[in-house]
Amino acid sequence: MESRWCAMVLLAFLVLGWCECCLEEERVALSRLKPFFPLIDYTNDVSYYPVEEKETSLNCCEWERVECNPTTGRVIKLFLDAPRDEGPYGLHNRVPWYLNASLFLPFQELKNLSLGGNYIAGCVADQGFERLSSKLKKLEILDLSENYFNDSIFMSLSELSSLKFLDLSYNFPLTGSNHTNGIKMLSRLNNLETLILSRNSLSNNILSQLHGFTSLKSLNLQLCGLEGTVDLLAYDYVPPKENRQNQSKQALGYKQEGIYPSNSRPASAKYHPSKESTSYEDQKSARLHPKPLGRKNILKTSDSEIPAQLHTDHRYDQPEFQIWLTYPFTLKNLKELYLGGNEIESLGSSFQESRLMNLEVLDLRGNRFNNSILSSLGRFPNLRSLSLGGSELKGSIDIKELVGLRSLEEVEIFCWSGCSLLLQSFGSFPSLKTLSLGGFSFNDTMVTSDFPNSSVGSPRGFSSLKHLRLSSCEISQNFTLQVFQLKNLESLDIYLTPLANNFLEKIGAMPSLKFLSIWGCGLNGTLHVQESRLMNLEVIDLRGNLFNNSILSSLGRFPNLRSLSLGGSELKGSIDIKELVGLRSLEEVDIFCYSGCSLLLQSFVSFPSLKTLSLGGFSFNDTMVTSDFPNSSVGSPREFSSLKHLELFECEISQNFTLQAFQLKNLESLDISETPLANNFLEKIGAMPSLKFLSIWGCGLNGTLHVQGFCDLMNVRELDIAYNNLTGNLPECISNFTSLESLDLSSNQLYGKVSALKSLTSLVMLRLSDNYFRVPISLEPFFNLSKLKFFYADNNLMYVESEMQSLVPRFQLNRISLSCCGDVGQFPAFLYHQYDLQLQGQLFSSKFNLTELFELHLDGNYFSGKIPDSLSNCSSLSVLDLSNNQLSGEIPNWMENLSGLTTLDLSNNDISGEIPRWMGNMSNLEDIVMAQNHLEGPFPVEFCNLNLHLKLLDLSMNNISGHVPSCFSPFWISEVHLSRNKLQGPLTNVFRNSSILVTLDLSNNHLTGKIPNWIGNLSQLSYLLLNNNHFEGRIPLLLCNLDRLSLIDLSNNNLSGTIPPCLMITTLAEVSQEFIHYVSAVAEAPSSFSIDSPIQFTSKNNSYSYKRRLLRILSGIDLSCNKLTGEIPHQVENFQNIYALNLSHNHLIGSIPPTFSDLKKIESLDLSHNNLSGTIPPQLVGLYTLSCFSVAYNNLSGSTPEMTAQFSTFEESSYVGNPLLCGKPLPKNCSTSEPPPSSLPKGSTDNDLIDMTAFYASFVASYVVVILSIASVLYINPYWRRAWFYHIGEICKCCYYFLEDHILPK
């Protein structure tokens, strides 16, 4: 009996199925999706650098991007979102296309569908998402973010009644403001709980469409252009309760309160179409124009039953009735609201009347709130998470306004204008788990161990806190966390907040702490902490501080440490890793040295769990890394088996360095960049069977590719050996790299044919630019590469084959660049078969129709005439580069329709006219470059609409006039170039909120007023050029806060006062790589920084134009041609590595500081045309880099510096205009008979031209002697006395009659 029961169970499993494999119908459907979503059967299993590896299983349920029901085997989740990186399948490498949504019909149990980042522009006609409503009854989650949908998507999505989660964020053309088919169409989704609309150009117009979402629990409107007063419930007026009751009783006897006006329909009302309305179009029409259902028909709502007959009863059109009829359709169930990144100033009645009583999460970051916002936020008893930040928050922040929020678990507050608060006040929230504060100041009077018994909280109230982050704060020396008793704290993150060295000593016991990050806080020396208090630490990040080598001994005491990141400007010499040998659990190590360090690479094998190793700025030599490891505690090469990712950047490696000895059999990615390598490095790389990514970028490899090591890399998926000096032909073995998906050989000196690449059938991206390859214009050698999407071969030798074969390429390119060089004859025929590009007709003809073209680069040619209207057909353009041509005329109006345009470069042409005002409505523009044209007219105030996305603006060398509007302050802009225009007026609040601005060039304009103090708050500013304007007043002391400043030019203004001695000047090359990566990451700089806008700076008496590569090593100060007074500051420690210093044409006094001899890298020093006195310090002859020197036209005395080294090259013009200066090369020789300085009279100095005391005494004595002599003569000789008084009388008469006749009134 028992065996029979087991057999029946087994039979049931076989019949009913326990199937973990996908159905054949769905497997076929997935294969049909493959051309549109190429990564559907791929996985990303390399965490350090994404390298796609194709799935080997034929069972689609085992694919990483597919999830099936384990019982039925049917697909329930599809993750078809594109990667957000810059790889071949990344979002930035896609072109807009149209989706056939019916391809998803076979997946009848699908619950989750993610299509984000695929740049879908819409759906094929009659194949939209409405087709899915009939079969996909279980679809609950739909992600359409980062695509190109417009407002037409709302009608299609309104049919998916089962949806609970909908993400439409970052769709460029989406506005949602259309009252016919706008966002309100989604209110029909009665089950919708989460709606994400962030990063769209919605504006306040959509607020009127938000009522009716009765089931909505989460609404995200971040970065949507909302401004001013935003009241989500402005259209849902609720009258007093007694009024609602009276009106409902008087309305034709009906008692229901949910009546709605005749021109609207409740979101939850279900419409039952008539039998005739069966098509989708008929249903759409019926929904927009519902028919009356008769007196007895009742429509159901969430609150009550409503007589449908009232739709047509005009007695309910009275104003007082229509005001409140929408009452049941408020956002009353809303629990999460995200409004960050807008320009909101107040929140209206939504918060004042506390109508969102179920609210649990509220995000208000990045708006324009002031301190009064706090009083509106204490009315939500269920609030768990609060994020707040406003540009108008100032002064003392009183948290007691929020004391009623007893359920609060997460708080994030950021202040931009310098605020203070009591940290202890957050102890009033007993459930607080996460606290993040930015821009605040705490001092010892606020944070002490003796808390008063008050409502502001106590240290015991922090027992629930698990995560604490302090960013850009100011903390006093006596600040301590010990009094807060943070025993349950798990992560502590302190960022860019100056700390005392003993801060960690006073941190207190934190037995639960696992994550500790102290980034850029100025800590130095060693780590002052008792390891017994932090025994459970797993992650430590101490980058950006000033630690020296002794820090390592402090870090070896944490046995559970898994990740260590360390970088300090004081790390020097040999780094001994044995101090860390006790960290047996270590998996990730990231160490960067700025001052030239060395270490034993083999010492890292002491960490048996190490998976990721990243080293920068170190040197390795052959005595350190050999195949014969000593038997010591530092480890042996056999123990490197766990390492998967190795990165070496900006290191120094000896000729005998080899990785072969380390037996890196499990290494998956190897990235060596800007590290000089021996030509035979690849020969000694050793066997790496697991290697999938290899980058040897900018490592100075020259000669030919050595076959022995290179040919063993046949399993590599991505290979990057760009920016080297490799020569010769490609080795034949490269044809065996059949797994290669991305190959970058650009910027070498390789030559010959490219036929060896024709067998690389997996290739998706190929970069051959800047070589000497012979590339046929037909691209015939690549015809068999069916997966090729991106091809770059600029600056090679293009040629036309003698015999052209009429073959059709198998590839469909998304991007191609073949600029320069060679005679290519006719238009390439293969382009006619590129359907993703849809290229037709001749270039720039009226048939030029690139409707799917994503990028167009036509720079550096000789195109003339107007910008052709035929380019208006390129409706999907994201990048348009027409720079460096001879184009003329005005900017055409059709560009306004390029709604997806992110980069526009029209620089160096002859374009004229005004900058179109409609350009400010192109909200997706990130880079605008129109320098060196003939543009004129005012700066468009509409550019203020670009504040959300603009990253680079270059309008230099035009004729733009007027003021720069004060509202123009883009959040993410990194470069501004407005030089050589006719801009006028003062700088008020322009760029005040542009916190990551790196370059600000407003030179050669007509700007007036004082240099604003807010420039000192631009903490990332590196290049400040305000020269040749009309600024006046003193140089702001707040400029001393700019510790990243590399170049400051304030010359040719009317500035007065003294030179601030605290100015700090450095070079970008000295700044940590972390800062450079930080700026790039925050600004998302790849597109912006690819446009190399020049900066003009005067040095060595000439004006030069510097671009980015040279700017990295350039630093200078130019304050010439102003009215500065006082002495030259003697402190030079803040700008010791300066390249150029120009203080000429001012009113400076005093002596030349001898400390100038410490400026060892200076090349240009100009102190001419001042009132400097004293001698020229002889120590200046030690400035061996000085090539331009002038102290002309001052009051200097003594001898010129000795004619040695660089001073032997300076001529008479460097010293002319100093009368008391002598010595070569001046014609005046220094006399040996002149008394030494010690023999000068008392009261005089060697800095004075004459003895002023003796001068005044002799003058008074002479004056007295003359008066007494005249009186004595007149007294002795009566004849002369009478003559004297006679002449005096005559003079008096003449004066009297002159006044009588000409001056006095008659």
Structural account:
By secondary structure, the chain is α/β, with parallel strands linked by helices. It is built from 14 helices and 73 strands. The strands form ten sheets. It has a 32-stranded mixed sheet that branches. Helix 13 crosses helix 14. The chain is globular. It is found in: Cell membrane. InterPro entries: Leu-rich_rpt (IPR001611), Leu-rich_rpt_typical-subtyp (IPR003591), LRR_dom_sf (IPR032675), LRR_R13L4/SHOC2-like (IPR055414), RLP_Defense_Trigger (IPR051502).
Q: What is the C-alpha radius of gyration, as a whole number of Å? A: 38 Å
Total count of strands: 73
Describe the biggest sheet?
32 strands, mixed
Total of DSSP H or I helical runs spanning 4+ residues:
14
Membrane topology: Single-pass type I membrane protein
Subcellular location: Cell membrane
Pfam families: LRR_1 (PF00560), LRR_14 (PF23598), LRR_8 (PF13855)
Keywords: Cell membrane, Glycoprotein, Leucine-rich repeat, Membrane, Receptor, Repeat, Signal, Transmembrane, Transmembrane helix
